[in-house]
Amino acid sequence: MDRAIQQTDYDAFSCKICAISKMYLPSSKELEFCGMRGFSELHMAYAQQLKGLNRRAYGKVQTAIRQGQPLMNYGTYLRTLIVDIECKSFLENAANENSKIQILNLGCGSDLRMLFFLNQYPQLTWIDLDFAESVSLKAKILKKNEQFRNTLGEPQGADDTEYISDRYLLKSCNLNHTQKVLDILLESSVPEVPTLVITECVLCYMDLSQSQALIDNVVSFYETGTWVSYDPIGGNEADDRFGAIMQANLWESRQLELPTLMFFNSVEKYAQRFEDETKHTQIETVWQYYIQQIPQEEKNRLKSLQFLDEIEELKLILSHYVHSKSSW
Length: 328
Ligand code: SAM
Prior knowledge:
This protein has about 325 residues and is α/β, with parallel strands linked by helices. The protein has a single domain, classed as Rossmann fold (3-Layer(aba) Sandwich), CATH 3.40.50. About 55% of the residues lie in helices and about 15% in strands. The protein contains 15 helices and eight strands. An eight-stranded mixed sheet has the order 3-4-2-1-5-6-8-7. Helix 3 (about 40-55) packs across helix 7. The protein is globular. It starts with a helix and ends with a strand. The model has no long low-confidence stretch (mean pLDDT about 95). Bound molecules: S-adenosylmethionine. S-adenosylmethionine binds near residues 8, 108, 131, 134 and 205.
């Protein structure tokens, strides 16, 4: 099962490359507000290195680009944009010249946003954690490219299966082993420093008790922080079959389970995993975000990229994804 979960990283990365190739990403907000100049070039450079190191993963990239489904591209566009904007907002609010800040990306996969934010915020340190296979591949790719190394800082040590520099740590860790996560955090981060924790399509693959242990322990570890999470939800209407169909499809096609999809099946239920007397949680569906936060001009731009007549289907899918933000 862990392997099937780990492989979802290549799906996420393939979808991102596809959204870039079809011009959904980067949005003007990522370019201007988030300072992500060179977004396409960096991702394409990473994809090129992937080609030489993991043919299977690169094959997924090529298939995704060939298929290029607009529904998928809308989803990837919104997911990437939402998390990027949350990172930037956190950094803008928490950063002043002298104060340190930290970002912890749990289940980071091949995500590359650390390159952009480490570049802009000299007082930022970044920790990426994932299963060994993803981490080792990512470390090799990052180490091979001079531009990546320049941003992340020269890697220390000869171990090719992780990346350790003064400001960046990429390390393998099974997130189900909370104590191991805490050991890494204790060694590589500072509990008193304001910290943003990201789980982007990660908690959905974990069991209820293990994901809750992860949340509770990481929140307790840091004095102040914000946790941004993005995940699917199963749906709470009696006649809503979305979650059941999604679970059946994933199991049939790749023996993959989403153990809490039907438990945290609504925005209210999903928010509960972060709620206690110390935390304040804001949550919305991605459809709400699309309707309320994406300006009409940008919606028109998206419409012009590919023909999409399944607007009801888009609404259905995006209504089954949530974006939550909890601060403590
Ligand atoms: N967050 C990345 C993104 O959005 O691009 C990757 C998303 S991918 C769908 C899910 C990631 O979570 C995979 O890289 C997977 O290996 C990681 N993951 C899920 N459960 C994990 C666990 N128990 N330990 C470590 N990594 C885990």
